[in-house]
Amino acid sequence: MTRDRSGNLALGPGPEFDRIRRIIERLPGAHGLGDDCGVFPHGGEFIALSTDVSVEGVHFSLDWIDAEEVGWRATAAALSDLAAEAAQPIGILAAVTMPAHAPESDLLDLMSGVGAAAKHAGAEVLGGDLSTGSAWSVTVTVVGRARSPIARRGAVPGNRVWVTGVLGGTRAALGAWQQGKDPLPGARTRFAHPEPRIEAGVWLAQRGARAMIDLSDGLAGDVPHLAAASNVAITIDLDALPIAVEAQAQAKQLDIPVQHFAAEGGEDYELLVALPREFDDASGFTRACGLPLTLIGVVAEGSGVHFLMSGAPVELRGYNHFR
Amino acid sequence: MTRDRSGNLALGPGPEFDRIRRIIERLPGAHGLGDDCGVFPHGGEFIALSTDVSVEGVHFSLDWIDAEEVGWRATAAALSDLAAEAAQPIGILAAVTMPAHAPESDLLDLMSGVGAAAKHAGAEVLGGDLSTGSAWSVTVTVVGRARSPIARRGAVPGNRVWVTGVLGGTRAALGAWQQGKDPLPGARTRFAHPEPRIEAGVWLAQRGARAMIDLSDGLAGDVPHLAAASNVAITIDLDALPIAVEAQAQAKQLDIPVQHFAAEGGEDYELLVALPREFDDASGFTRACGLPLTLIGVVAEGSGVHFLMSGAPVELRGYNHFR
User: In this complex, do B115 and A43 lie within 8 Å of one another by their Cβ atoms?
Assistant: First the structure.
């Protein structure tokens, strides 16, 4: 992604994204907004940056996860944007606000989680800031390097759409907590301890990835971003989705198909990628990255996203962070 | 500043800084924390980054300044850290939290201020994030490049200590607002529309600056950081301070010497710099940067900071953001 390639507003529909579009109109020089990372060329490659805010009561509750997990999760979510750009992490910065009377031990635990997630991804903690505030929040900014960053805009008709890992685990955890129950351990881990798919992003870029995005708004929210940015139509076969085992019970309670449940759940932090039609090495991906890679859709001329189940069109709702 | 040079905890005394020291103990790989910027080498020079959070009710009130000024101020404060590193800004990222029912026009105005401050400094808006929260906050992360970054740690005995601009204007504005009055226009501008001293930082680096810091915690708070980082003693002659005219009336009301008022006031965002004894070109600085540059102290062997007025020692309090 270079500056002139990034003039396009790479966002799908939705009130959160309409708001971001109105901000971008006020910032005529802000080319990078709307992609996973902002990038600039430097020293023969590209520097990629992204910033991500996590707010208590909006993105997490300390009744659900502990302070160290809050720090890990916020940092992993930001690093996931580097993964989607096929960038290698270099460093992170963390700005924290905390209630005036919160125990300092929570702050230290939160920062331990930030540090652990950074170290796990090979990134250094380069800076931070600290303030009082009415609730806990942590804003993590990540910086990385990429020889050939992958934006959301490169998908072309004929490409195939793949997804890493399994979907719906985070939503299963949220659903359990919202009912006052403990989530299944696998679902809890998906929420509290997500893994940014750094290696996967680089591997896919080396195999010719044309466009990539990390799944923070859910498949139903993020496929439209990729389609809009690339100016193509995308059809997703919901029957093909790789689904977390923990999603079954929650979907059943809601009386919706588990495929809808998984496609509408956010914050799985898996990668959605458009690859050339010829790509055929999912088993090589799994050997290299320890994850499944699943073919779920195709790119065609046109615009918009079509979700199909048993061959029939399905309407899905995107996951809205701005709540 | 390189990674191995930055292992030192470049912070003066105070409860906010004790807290940061305890965080750093939990992050053994976090070399850059405690300086104005974190830096890493890339492409034959250095990339410098800093992150700065501004919270409604802590750092600003929308009763005092409007949303566009909030955005400008938050961005200028973050850019000031690049100035103190002698770095040229490249880009900024802004993560905003806003109350759920706040008007969108305030958000757009705030982001216009962010964009204007970035453009003024030659930086691009590279990214952002948006969330609801219980109060307004904006976390600005800045990225820049420097051939020879200037840290806080390079002052050596015999250096002279200089300061750009004039001090105490921001505190004069805060004092007026806290009394329910309108500040004098010059003081209001200092608070609402600070200017990051980018050109000044680069000019001073080219003239041999040994150590530099921007004045966010006030002279009384920031000189100790520079002395601790450089492992030297610093003596400041308060009679020499360049003082904002607006500070006089506020100091008189508080019945304290205006020199104390100015030295204890925070967020002036001027640069404090240690220069070789031979430096003698304040008038050249003023011609180049349009600002005064004033000799206010000397560096000696030892440790700690001595503030003198009429030759007698004076105790001053640092400005504490963590309130």
Answer: no
Report the domain count for chain B: 2
The predicted-structure confidence for B273-293, as pLDDT tens digits, reads as follows 999 999 999 999 999 999 999
- Whether the predicted model's global pTM rises above the 0.80 cut: yes
Measured between CB atoms, does B142 come within 8 Å of chain A?
no
pLDDT tens string B142-154: 999 999 999 999 9
Q: Please say whether the beta carbons of A110 and A96 come within 8 A.
A: yes
**Would you say residue B24 lies in a domain?**
no
CB proximity B38 to A under 8 Å: yes
Reference B245, options B229, B258, B231, B264; nearest CA is: B258
Contact: B91, A52; criterion CB under 8 Å: no
CATH number of A84's domain: 3.30.1330.10
ipTM metric: 0.92
In this structure, the answer to whether residues B208 and B265 fall within a common structural domain is yes
Judgement on whether residues B226 and B191 belong to the same structural domain of the protein: yes
Domain annotation covers residue B152: no
Q: Kindly state whether residues A78 and A214 are assigned to the same domain.
A: no
Tell me if B172 is assigned to some domain.
yes
Q: How many CA atoms lie within 13 A of B189 on its CB side?
A: 6
Most B-contacting residue of A141, A319, A323 (CB-CB within 10 A), to test interface: A141
Cross-chain Cβ contact A29/B125 below 8 Å: yes
Question: B40-92, pLDDT tens digit by residue?
Answer: 999 999 999 999 999 999 999 999 999 999 999 999 999 999 999 999 999 99
Q: Do A119 and B31 touch (CB under 8 A)?
A: no
User: Closest approach of chain B CAs to the CA of A269, in angstroms?
Assistant: 16
Nearby residues of B294 by Cβ (< 8 Å), 6 or more positions away: B162, B163, B240, B241, B242, B282
Residue B95, domain extent:
35-146
Of A175, A212, A213, A169, nearest to A193 by C-alpha is: A169
In a domain, B155, yes or no: no
